[in-house]
Amino acid sequence: MSQTGLAKALGLHPSAINKVVSGKRQLKSHEVAGAAVYFGEEAPQTELVPVTTGLVAARVAGVVEAGTFREVDEFDQSEPIEVMLPRDEKFPNARQLLFDCSGDSMNDLRPRPIFPGDRLVCISYEDVQHLVELRSGMVVVVERTRDSGHFREWSVKQLELFGDRAEFHPRSTNPKHKPIVIQRDHEADDGVSVQVIALVRRVMNEMPGF
Fold this sequence. Notes:
CATH architecture of the largest domain: Ribbon
CATH superfamily of the largest domain: Umud Fragment, subunit A
Number of domains: 2
Mean pLDDT: 84
CATH class of the largest domain: Mainly Beta
CATH topology of the largest domain: Umud Fragment, subunit A
Distance between the termini: 49 Å
Strand content: 25-35%
């Protein structure tokens, strides 16, 4: 038995197991079952009781900026920046992600614009997609990837759903920003994939001078 073996069994990088051992990271529920199998025990059958109080660590995922594709470093092992935040009241067990806003693509969002320098408090859509149906009016973080995933764009948009398409709209005074339109029956491969990765729940902004 070793940390390297456990990491391999769970499909994690060894650094992630180091963080578990040092107390900087907790195993997720599906990882607990995998760890039990690795150590030769049956997966626990007891029901997990959600914890709904206290603060949790939210990871600063990166920058959202419409129209800017950045190269993806798949081997980036730098220590992630984490901020302690209250649990989300509606989704207390979902991962919280933070995105720093750059650019003016949402400076005309109503009732509250999103300005450059704002920090978006989001929940991972992967964690709640079985609970939350996407609907018009939602403000979401959208990921577009191209060149086989080597480059990606993260941007914040407001969703509008129609019978044959989904539209992700900027809300900006700057006319250069255009919506992303996804046809439901669109089968052509243009090398760009689009997916919702987070739902925006709150906006934060630190006051200068402190």
